[in-house]
Structure prediction request, 171 residues.
Amino acid sequence: MTVTENSSDADNNRARFTISYSGLLANNETASVDVAHVLGDTAVADYTNDLTTALQAAAAGADGVTASGTTLTFTGGSGNDTNLDFSLIIADDTATESLENFQIGLSNPQTDAPVPIGITKPSAATTILDNDNLIEFSVSGTTSVTEDGSDADNNQATYTCLLYTSPSPRD
Prediction:
């Protein structure tokens, strides 16, 4: 998945994730999983919310799902949700940056149901694309000059220095 540091594009600076379970939880049986935000080559400043806040906000609007820190617990029962959607919001800074990568990981699945439990997809990777302008300089010029005043180069070396300001090639 990719998300761009641009609040006016389609992703609205949101890296969206869904955590779900499959199988059957009987009424009031629970299944839980720990969720981790692995920063990779990002930093805390690259986000305007944190994982705990994102999970708690999402769980507050869900039926049968609770968040305690970064542990999600799903409770079985008619009408209860079997998945939870949440978003990490990417900060739109002004620094020109390389691609940045992070992951959401799952671990420690537990249940009080009398069935085996596991994780089928333990992580989801996301790449943050920078939207800031690049400022680049370039120089080109004469590769050789002869010390002969009668030839075409007139003993002159010519150079051109250019300044490019453009949107990031990743936009």
